[in-house]
Amino acid sequence: MKEFLGYAAMLTGTAAAIMVSANIGRRVTGYGFVIFTASSLTWIAYALQDGETPLMLQNAVLTAINLAGIYRWLIARKEPSQ
To answer: What is the pLDDT of residues 9-37, one digit of tens each?
Structure first.
């Protein structure tokens, strides 16, 4: 199970990074943050199984950052450009 979590976290993190860095639209970027959140939560599960407290704490912070990204890109209304 631990090995599966590690690969799942790595693959989702990579996919999310591609989506966010591609900058091909608000919706794609927002869903990139959704996938980043899934990756962070998976890393937390991995870290808890392995007793990796620093990895768990880092991904707890990244989860909060990713939730802010979800809010900014998917929930908050876009301000009109001037």
So the answer is: 999 999 999 999 999 999 999 999 999 99
What's the token pair of residue 57? 């704490």
CA separation for the pair 44, 54 (Å, rounded) = 10
Contact call for residues 35 and 16 (beta carbons, < 8 A): yes
Q: Is residue 62 part of a domain?
A: yes
- CA dist., res. 26 & res. 32, Å (int): 10
| Beta carbons of 37 and 66 less than 8 angstroms apart | yes
Domain with 7, as residue range(s), is 2-75
Asked whether residue 21 is assigned to any structural domain, the reply reads yes
CB 33 within 8 A of CB 66: yes
pTM above 0.85, yes or no: yes
In a domain, 82, yes or no: no
